[in-house]
Amino acid sequence: MRYLPHTPEDIEAMLQVVGAKSLDDLFATIPPDSRLKRDLDLPQPLTEWELNQLMDEMAASMASSPKYKVFLGAGSYNHFIPSTVPFLMGRSEFVTAYTPYQPEVSQGTLQYIYEFQTLVSKLLGIDVVTASHYNGGTALAESLLIACRSKKKKVAAVSSLVNPMYRRILKTYFESTGIDVVELPYLPDGRTDLSALDGLADVGAVAVQSPNFFGCLEDLQGFADKSHEKGAFLIASFTEALAFGLFKSPGSQGADFVAGEGQSLGVPQSYGGPSLGLLGSTEKLVRNLPGRLIGKTVDLDGQRGFVMTLATREQHIRREKASSNICSNQSLCSLAAVIYMASVGGTGIRELAKLNYDKAEYLKGQLKKAGFKIPFETQTFNEFVVEFPEGFDKTYQKLLDKKIVAGLPLVKYYPEMKNHYLMCVTETLTKADMDDLLGEIKS
Amino acid sequence: MRYLPHTPEDIEAMLQVVGAKSLDDLFATIPPDSRLKRDLDLPQPLTEWELNQLMDEMAASMASSPKYKVFLGAGSYNHFIPSTVPFLMGRSEFVTAYTPYQPEVSQGTLQYIYEFQTLVSKLLGIDVVTASHYNGGTALAESLLIACRSKKKKVAAVSSLVNPMYRRILKTYFESTGIDVVELPYLPDGRTDLSALDGLADVGAVAVQSPNFFGCLEDLQGFADKSHEKGAFLIASFTEALAFGLFKSPGSQGADFVAGEGQSLGVPQSYGGPSLGLLGSTEKLVRNLPGRLIGKTVDLDGQRGFVMTLATREQHIRREKASSNICSNQSLCSLAAVIYMASVGGTGIRELAKLNYDKAEYLKGQLKKAGFKIPFETQTFNEFVVEFPEGFDKTYQKLLDKKIVAGLPLVKYYPEMKNHYLMCVTETLTKADMDDLLGEIKS
Amino acid sequence: MKKTYTGLQLSEPLLWEKGKKGRHAFDLPGRDVEPAPLDQSLVGDGPDFPDLSEVEVVRHFVRLSTWNYGVDSGTYPLGSCTMKYNPKTNERQASLTGFNNAHPLLPAELSQGALRMLYEMQEYLGEITGMDGVTLQPAAGAHGEMTGMMMIHAYHAAHGRQRTKVIIPDTAHGTNPATTVLCGYAPVNVTSNEKGYLSPETIEAVMDEDTAGIMVTNPNTLGLYEENFKKIAEIVHSKGGLVYYDGANMNAIMGVVRPGDVGADVMHLNLHKTFSTPHGGGGPGSGPVAVKKDLVPFLPVPQVVLEDGVYRLKDDCPQSIGQVQPFCGSFNVILKAYAYIRTMGPQLKLASQLAVLNANYIKESLKGTLHLEYDRPCMHECVFDDKFQEQYHVTTMDMSKRLLDYGFHPPTNYFPLVVHGAIMIEPTETESKEDLDEFIAAYKAIAEEAKTNPELLHDAPRNTKWRRLDETSAARKPCLTG
Amino acid sequence: MKKTYTGLQLSEPLLWEKGKKGRHAFDLPGRDVEPAPLDQSLVGDGPDFPDLSEVEVVRHFVRLSTWNYGVDSGTYPLGSCTMKYNPKTNERQASLTGFNNAHPLLPAELSQGALRMLYEMQEYLGEITGMDGVTLQPAAGAHGEMTGMMMIHAYHAAHGRQRTKVIIPDTAHGTNPATTVLCGYAPVNVTSNEKGYLSPETIEAVMDEDTAGIMVTNPNTLGLYEENFKKIAEIVHSKGGLVYYDGANMNAIMGVVRPGDVGADVMHLNLHKTFSTPHGGGGPGSGPVAVKKDLVPFLPVPQVVLEDGVYRLKDDCPQSIGQVQPFCGSFNVILKAYAYIRTMGPQLKLASQLAVLNANYIKESLKGTLHLEYDRPCMHECVFDDKFQEQYHVTTMDMSKRLLDYGFHPPTNYFPLVVHGAIMIEPTETESKEDLDEFIAAYKAIAEEAKTNPELLHDAPRNTKWRRLDETSAARKPCLTG
Ligand SMILES: Cc1ncc(COP(=O)(O)O)c(C=O)c1O
Ligand SMILES: Cc1ncc(COP(=O)(O)O)c(C=O)c1O
After folding, report:
1. What is chain C's pLDDT, residue by residue, as a tens digit (482 residues)?
2. Is the N or the C terminus of chain B less surrounded, counting Cβ atoms within 10 Å?
3. Taking CB atoms and an 8 Å limit, are B362 and D64 in contact across chains?
């Protein structure tokens, strides 16, 4: 076994030092009746070459872009990732390190996380961002929990246009907390009904996603004002962070917490994971944040350096009094993101965001022209809802055979949205791809 | 342009320092009538994404293994390369350095070349090996030249079973040297006719390849004895270095020079290049060797380290008196080889060589059983010649459609060898692959 | 003894201390559509990111990387973290375009490869743990704990009476009590016995009908097998409680003990530890949860099932606790762990045996040099402390910092809390005897220095590019963005 | 000014000082055939390689790599070597399985992608050089020189009278005279004028009917454009000679001058320099040769042609010099250069302009600090020397070694030979103004140190893991294997 360096002689010599007669003997403290009497029933080891073949076959079975033209978004976005990102991420010293417990030999990790915190805080317009959370959904769940707890209130109001997958996570997380999650309905314009907050009492936090699941931009400032009025925090969620290259950031619109997904920023889709939960807050709230924070300091010689800080919020110090149980986070994904953000740059991210917008608008416009209904007039970014005629599901299947995935059928998530599809267009799809789709749909 | 860091302001400021009015102005010393008056007529720049698409398409058009089952050898061999090889070779510090002119910051390169020299010298059984030559053919050509020059003789005798591509290189190289290349005919057993040397005079060097182009092992010791008798050097060539994991090394059989190809040792086939010329000699002849040599030394503190040495053979010191004009060599390929050899190990290389042998013998045996003729009875390694019945070329074409490349037709290289094919089987082909081939041929 | 050298390491500023407006390291795809009008009131300023060329980006991160120490640099015996070698072939598999560019909401028929891998992984982990059902969704160990504890919560709810407490041993990892609270339970802290593990009596004394169960790490964080585990499980079960098995230390016992065979009801695994997946800088992880039959109905959705030869995602499970991930978990991490399991097969047992051999070898070799509170055969790790060095005013931390000068990553310090000044060493099976011998020699040399020249240790590290960093002032006036 | 630090760099023994028999880092494929009998008299002992585990191999080479300085580490202004940034996307393209696993003798119909790339590359290089035919076969610059000179030899042979000499300027790279001799010609050495380039009179004086031609590097190795190139070519042509153009310095003049337009008959390009392909540690390179119409018949075989929409290898060219490579040249290198050209397109000219701008910026900025023998507008590089420092007994070498302490790779030293103590600086276009400013500041600081504290320089480098190495004893008693 090429990963196991022990020769029979090594094992013999070491057993002798240890005073054991055999490898089995090492487990003498385990009661015999607790031990497995047979070999594990697993497939026999594959050689590296057999493994390559198996994996190639499995990978080839996937309807991935660019083989397929995939008009899916809904929380996972196909963006171009420069080859420098996997190259730099692949550096042994980044990949095979762990939590930077020893800052003197972890400044590579520590500086990139500090840079990540900084760039993400700029993108989201918020004071502080943690070193990462599991994903947008868990970031949202944890921030809602913290918000309600610190407000000592029992109701979390959540827009029904928060990504349905995230809302399912909230449901799970809140089951045993004693906090009620109340959903805010949406309006015919594809935005959350702000007025629905009026009727609610004991609200500790309000969560709104913008762009929301229908792709529409919400009036975050309106929600912030109303939430604050009611003594609640506004938590701004998002699944497509690239939107803030073009549109106002959530922080600039009064959000107290931001909690969303950063996969768009250089993390491959990879069938949904690992992803990159982004979680931040205003400065006042920093000591409530769950998860790691990296701070600037100096070493004994006065040289600038970075360390993990404010760890008294964390489980390894505070145990049951910690603000969260999170331990491992998504560090390599945050590395991808900071390399990506550095590569795209301030000028580039705006142009890229604009291009996403323009492409999606092109498809939207052409669909409209072709007579399909765009039910919501609200401003969108790179996703929007279209209503196709009854029976479109057959066309959808036919398109799959032509290697086109024509958006996400919404009826599974919103039963009232029969024949509605959520379409996403990023910079990876060309006008020709869209025209192909349009041609197929119209025919 | 993402590779060009200059902003317009940078250019402005720098032009000012330089005292030029424009970028064009920088070329003022070039006579105007020498300058190109138009833009280069090249395709417009592709984005990284367009480039990816283009390259994916071109790569997909290739009949490469494992998509195809390729029974070709003849100087380029398909061997498994562990994923650690490209990973480690890809380290920036290896890839983006150059010739180790500054040994204090080049010990990574210098130590791996020293290790390469050592492991290759063990494999070939010869005292000294250079840091690499372009490929087996040029290594052979240069060693023949050196040998004849240092013997001050005018004839180089070369086996007709040296790889025909190499012999063509010899022909080209020797055109302007005043040295005659005489070919030694081959015998019915698939080996070179040793007795043909008898008739030759003024021979400075004898070149024999083993395993030879027909895959047969030559009697190198016999050639060494006879060459030395005649006052000539024996140069042992080879294209499949893996053979020496199993069979006697050329150095151990009296060769004065070894010159061949190391592509087998972890270098991808890559449509034939870059490859890895291996070139070595006995210790006495080291000062005649062309190309780089790395030697052990110490630094000012007595710490072991490595430097380029014996550079007085090289063009940058000796200019017209140099033993060769070689400057850049195949260093990254030698890095691949040393990682590969370290990975396979002494135990592994023997087993791997034996497996290659056994697989080739299986196919040979089955072909024989099926009634096809194996014209040469001499011991082979992983390549051998088979004679198919008249009209097999149609079957060959049919097999291509079934994604099988059934060896190399020899008639192009040896007109007398109609319907003869050179078959190669490495560890990458399975019994099933061979049985498929057999099934197709027999039907 | 290993000798290290200092050498040139390049400095590098922060990203925004570099670059100039107008540079870029990213190609904007050609514009093939017209610019569309925009509601200007919604438009922001865009983030104030630096603009860098590709060369600047590459050098920046290459230089940063050289300031780090990883498993590929050398021995990294960070206790409780199983810093084993991360096979390079797994990275190859995980970077295949078919996987990398796969959208998680692709129709099942168009993602059979991914689903097959996930399905088989569920099966393999079930076999390794001896459990009946597996979810691959949790993003890390702590997330697995939460998922598992929520299932216990749901189980009790379904059985008509919710409970309020969960028993937590003093050796537990910090995530255990934190998880307990997150799931609405109060932790009941219990202490291990003088041998370093739990006595049945201790549990007997606190287990009652208001207690939802216990969370036990086994082997525990002292590196010791909980010898009374079976008995304890019986006690907990007898009062209607459930046993949560923290399987983060599974690297000690693969193929030796299956938690499902000895009384565990729910457990998590840390794929990023036991199953070799890299988690550079702190993650990503993957913390699958395995459960016994009774708890299968509560598993999170979606689950991967095989029906009529087709793999599908199933989410109509009425008793399920719901979803804990937007999609199917850390797919790319699971894929690497899958590649590892396919490479190892039943030899996983040998990996555990050698991990335990390595830990015991270190324990025996260093026990005269460092104080060993619990002198018993250990599993995958052993825990020393700095009692011998106290007289020289040398601490665990000082020795760790000195170890850096010797070119090793230090062990985990000051955890588990039950050992004062703990030095928690987990070598893992991928270290050779020579590596261990060098590491042991280094500790011995340092212990000698502690006697003869303690200043060397107080002053350490000296060979690293940074000396000790001021953590106090970092926390007092936090500067978290630049 | 750039500040560097020393830091931990790990030591690492030689491969055979590690490992133990029986380890391996390579999976032997499953044996699916019987062992076959063998003629034992032919069987050898097998090489005495060490046996290492995968972890040992990985750590070995990772550690070795950290002792190196590359372009990805920082500025690498090695004159005559064009150490520009090596784009990472090119590595991605070159690692595609379809290319990597392609056998060079595949039938043409089954290798259209590779052939198309090669064909287009021939076309692009023809356009860039202004020449009529291109061969991609030569493995490096020197190999290209030889190929080109052999074509000149064949040309004269075909024209009925072989010649005996070739003119070589004193600024020539060492490969030029060495090549000349290899091809059976005697070099006639000529000197450049006081301005650093060739005077027509000099050539006029030596060119005769026994002279096969001239080899000219342009821009020459002083970084100067040969202003009389056209005139010189005329002189050579008028005597029936041919002009070999060493295009290794093409990075200065892409899109500005096409050698084919100004009198060159044959030339080579260094793809591994001008066209950005990595050549770590010394190679691999690729040295395509381009020729004018008259020489096309002599191009080596095989040539890549397009016939009826199909790309083919053609080798029935009766006048061809034959083959210089077993197959089609450094395919994988050419592929990266192709990717670079497709990425740059006509902007190659901008790359040259900025390369020249950078060199002139350094020249102007350092010319008070270092002595500049030829103070003229330079092309892609500039050549200083150590005359100013002589009084302090400080040499070019001392300053270079000190530069290492400052975190820079030094320039080329002591070449070209026409400048005593030459300091040959080629920044390339991928260095930013900030990079250059730091480099300039470092040289200024060092020049100051040369005055005030020359010991610092004699003693340098001090920050590197190794101090100066003893090259003399290495050559006196060569130890070339371990
Ligand atoms: C015993 C134990 N339990 C739980 C965890 C938490 O796992 P994770 O960091 O993946 O959340 C760890 C991690 O160190 C651990 O060692
Ligand atoms: C001017 C000049 N000519 C020729 C060469 C030789 O090129 P190569 O090293 O690729 O053989 C070089 C390389 O440095 C050079 O600078």
Report:
1. 345 678 889 889 999 999 999 999 999 999 999 999 999 999 999 999 999 999 999 999 999 999 999 999 999 999 999 999 999 999 999 999 999 999 999 999 999 999 999 999 999 999 999 999 999 999 999 999 999 999 999 999 999 989 999 999 999 999 999 999 999 999 999 999 999 999 999 999 999 999 999 999 999 999 999 999 999 999 999 999 999 999 999 999 999 999 999 999 999 999 999 999 999 999 999 999 999 999 999 999 999 999 999 999 999 999 999 999 999 999 999 999 999 999 999 999 999 999 999 999 999 999 999 999 999 999 999 999 999 999 999 999 999 999 999 999 999 999 999 999 999 999 999 999 999 999 999 999 999 999 999 999 999 999 999 999 999 999 999 999 99
2. C
3. no
DSSP C464: S
In this structure, which ligand is nearest to the CA of C177? 1
What residues pair up with B207 in beta bridges, in sequence order?
B158, B235
- The residue nearest atom 9 of ligand 1, judged by CA position, is A328
Which ligand 1 atom is nearest residue C143's CA?
11
CB C244 within 8 A of CB C215: yes
Contact (Cβ atoms closer than 8 angstroms) between residue C191 and residue C203: no
Are the CB atoms for A406 and A71 separated by under 8 Å?
A: yes
Q: For residue D310, what are the β-bridge partners?
A: D307
B109, B172, B245: residue with CB nearest D150: B172
Whether D89 and A9 lie within 8 Å, measured CB to CB? no
Tokens found for residue A352: 């890229």
What DSSP line would sit under B380-406, residue for residue?
Answer: BSSEEEEE--TTHHHHHHHHHHTTEE-
Our CA angle for B23, B28, B34, nearest 5°, is 105
Tokens found for residue B62: 């290739």
**Dist. CA C248 → ligand 1 center (Å):** 6
Nearest-Cα distance to chain A for B335, in Å, is 18
Shortest alpha-carbon distance between residue B16 and chain A (Å): 27
A428 touching chain B per CB within 8 A: yes
Return left, alpha or beta for D162; rule: phi > 0 is left, psi -120 to 50 is alpha, else beta.
Answer: beta
DSSP structure string for D186-229: EEEEE---TTSS--HHHHHHH--TTEEEEEEESS-TTS---TTH
Contacts of B253 in chain D (CB under 8 A): none
- DSSP letters spanning B270-325: GGG-S--EEEEE-GGGGGG--S--EEEEEBTT--EEEEE--GGGSHHHHGGGSS--
Q: How many Cβ atoms are within 10 Å of D116's Cβ, its own excluded?
A: 17
Rounded Cα gap, residues A46 and C124, in angstroms: 15
Ligand 1 lined by C265 (C-beta under 6 Å): no
Question: Which SS3 state, helix, strand or coil, does residue D168 take?
Answer: strand
Q: Which amino acid, A341?
A: M
Cα A299 to Cα B264: distance, rounded to the nearest angstrom: 50
Helix axes A107-124, C54-65, angle to 10 degrees: 140
* Contact check, Cβ <8 Å, C349/A296: no
- C282 Cα to the center of ligand 1, angstroms: 11
Structure tokens at D139: 């493995």
List C-alpha distances in Å: A380 to A71, A137, A425, B1, B226.
15, 21, 11, 31, 86
Assess contact for A181 and A235: CB atoms under 8 A: no
**Ligand 1 centre distance from Cα of residue A94 (Å):** 20
Q: Which residues contact C270 (CB under 8 A, 6 or more apart)?
A: A328, C82, C140, C141, C144, C247, C248, C250, C285, C286, C287
B83 in reach of chain A (CB within 8 A): yes
Q: Touching check for A102 and chain D: CB below 8 Å?
A: no
Report the C-alpha gap between D190 and D168 in whole angstroms: 6
Sequence-distant (6+) residues with CB within 8 A of C119 are C304, C305, C306, C311
